[in-house]
Amino acid sequence: MNIPRPTGRLAPTPSGLLHLGNARSFLLAWLWARSEGGRVIMRIEDIDLPRCRPIFRRQALSDLHWLGLDWDAGPGPDDALGPFDQSTRFEQYRRALDRLVQAGRAYPCVCSRRDIEEATRAPHGDEGAVYPGTCRGRFATFAEAAAQSRSTPAWRFAFSDKAFSFRDEVQGPVLAHPHDLGDFVLWRKDGLPSYQIAVTVDDAAMGVSQVLRGRDLLLSTVRQLALYEALGLQAPAHWAHVPLLLSEEARRLAKRDGGLSLKALREQGVAPARILGLCAFSCGLQSELRPATLTELTQCFDFAFLHRPDFTLTREHLAWLLA
């Protein structure tokens, strides 16, 4: 009996330059797969067409290659758009949406963000105000919703009453109830698929068995598990949501932090080994701040060593990085 190799993925969004926080998450995803003799897939998550740019796609692929991270399937820095770019896969996402509609698991929604914020007693969750289900059962068809609202509706997923649970390699057991999440968007009013449906369809199609991302996306796994079940797809077997890398102002690093982008660090002459060393130190794979190689990090990778709290990047850390 052939046991499938573990399959992880790197999934940059080309809406800006990759920063140290991105590098840290991609490094951990790569180490997880490689430490178990697994495959790595490169997927470009560019469904947000107005914000994503070819120059950022090329830079992200070049930066990750420079850092030493390789992959077994997916585009290289100079490759044209292809089957591992989400912008080429809208037809697959639309077919999944159609299946959900036919199964009664998706419905049209005309609510604006303001409508949801102003809804009576609308609680807040990981994605802002929890949708109160205003449009669930309100319209018989998409056309009726469009006619009554004089706008293009979105599509939302109709959660069942079933709670979902999974074991996270970092966060431990996770249990969430749909009431705490709310019916989420599958297809946006501007005609673009949501992150949730695109990631679910692609991870299933590409045979991904390991998903590692930031802890801020922990509850997205519950949404995706519900989608896997509703679509009859095989969900990844293993999940890991790692602590975040924070600035001294205690906020998550973002693409607006241009000075901490991999491109800027490369241009300042910072060696990949120092970036790897800082990333490894920040998450607990190294007990001291020193340069590191992928070979040694692969050999020592173990979720038991990972720190659970977020890590604050101080001026002293940056001074060491730039020394």
With strands numbered from the N-terminus, the spatial order across the biggest sheet is: 3-6-9
List low-confidence stretches. none
Tally of alpha and pi helices = 11
* Secondary structure tally: strands: 13
Order of helices and strands: EHEHHEHEEHEEEEHEHEEHHHEH
Task: Using the alpha-carbon principal axes, give the shape.
Answer: globular
Summed up, what is this model?
This protein is α/β, with parallel strands linked by helices. The chain has 11 helices and 13 strands.
Can you put this structure into words, describing what you see?
This protein has helices at residues 20-35, 54-67, 90-102, 113-118, 142-149, 195-205, 220-231, 262-267, 272-283, 294-300, 315-322; strands at residues 7-10, 39-42, 106-109, 124-125, 128-129, 154-157, 164-168, 172-176, 185-187, 210-214, 238-242, 245-246, 311-312. The protein contains eleven helices and 13 strands. With 323 residues, the chain is α/β, with parallel strands linked by helices. The protein is globular and about 65 Å long. The model has no long low-confidence stretch (mean pLDDT 93). A three-stranded antiparallel beta sheet has the order 3-6-9. A two-stranded parallel sheet has the order 1-2. The protein has a two-stranded antiparallel sheet with strand order 4-5. Helices cover 35% and strands 15% of the residues. The longest helix has 16 residues, at 20-35. α1 crosses α9 and α1 (20-35) packs across α10.
